[in-house]
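Treating backbone geometry as a discrete language has practical consequences that deserve illustration. No coordinates are needed to read the tokens, only the vocabulary itself. For completeness, the protein is quoted in full, as a sequence line and a line of structure tokens:
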Amino acid sequence: MLSAIAHFFSKIVSSPETRKKIIVTAVVLLVFRFVAHIPASGIDRTSLQALFLGSPLLSLLDVFSGGTLANFSIMALGLNPYINASIIMQLLTYVIPALEELSKEGEYGQEKINQYTRFLTIPLAAMQAFGMYSLLRSQGILTTLSPLALFSLILTMTAGTVFAVWLGELITEYGFSNGVSILIFAGIIARLPVVVGQSVTAIQAQDLMKIGVFLGLAVVIVGLIVFMNEAVRRVPISYARRVGRGASPLNSFLPLRLNQAGVIPIIFAVSLVLLPSIVSQFLTGIDNERLANLAAGIAAAFNPQSLVYNALYFLLVFGFTYFYTAVVFNPTKIAENLQKNGGFIPGIRPGTATSQYLSFVLNRITLIGASFLGFVAILPSFFQNFVGVANLAIGGTGILIVVSVVLEVTRELEAQLVMRKYEGFVR
């Protein structure tokens, strides 16, 4: 096993294209982590850290900001506004006919939609910056700022988000695909020592059973994630190949992954499931008694251990898995490409029948993949009381993202190495 790993890394080092991707990604991540420690002005750091330690929801939000929120750096909002803008734009694509037509124009249409997403990120970041300021002011962590100081703070945080999005785009263009996921991955890894330290402190040393359950649960979850991410449904494909006067079939297969959407559904779901809790914490500091009581009810309902929170989290992960699978995999286009290249599925007519068959198979395997992602996302919450670790739910979601991103990057590296073996590949 170790020799196979060493052989894999030796191939990576020998490939100049792969080395370039790794170097670019590493440099961008280094810049991202450096900027993440540049604090914004006027913050009581001690009170801020106490607030995050006492709120699992804010700690989870900090994970998806790349660890920048707990430090309240100039990139405190992280990539959350961009993720929210991506969700809005993808939903609008199915509602607005002009955007739907644009999405069908291939690479040009996708670039325009990405451009609109970046434009939408700016006002969302400004609104979230003001909401974060109001939340911290209600908690006594920030003093009331003058209009000019408030404008400067909002402008700084918005610029930090735009800068983080730009870094993610750099990784996507010159490094590995889906740079946003890699930045979130880097933030989780950077926070890993803190999370592990808090977990070890929370579990008493004499309670060996809880420690065993904690470690065993982590190993099982990682194993299940790897198994389900690598699982594929092989659809047999035959091609008619001419040999002399006759024809012989050339058999192949079309691999359909159980989890076509990757880690994106988890990221989207967390961004939305946290909104009610953030709004409730914002309303808690308002003098209106009715709004304060409403905020308390929302906070209780959307506690990470509550049934409402976990049910909504599961449904969001489940729904976004189906939604994003429909975005990244088009059965009609696959059927057309097969027909143009003389390929067919044995027993299925080319064209519309092939498209319907692929949709049927994809819906069945996505049901398994979406259910698995949903259960893994909420599973740590059910063990939280037993183990006695308040941030176990945070760790479960983080593990899911970390393992999925590592598998995606490994798969991309393998594809890059396979391309070098093709005859005529330009080195």
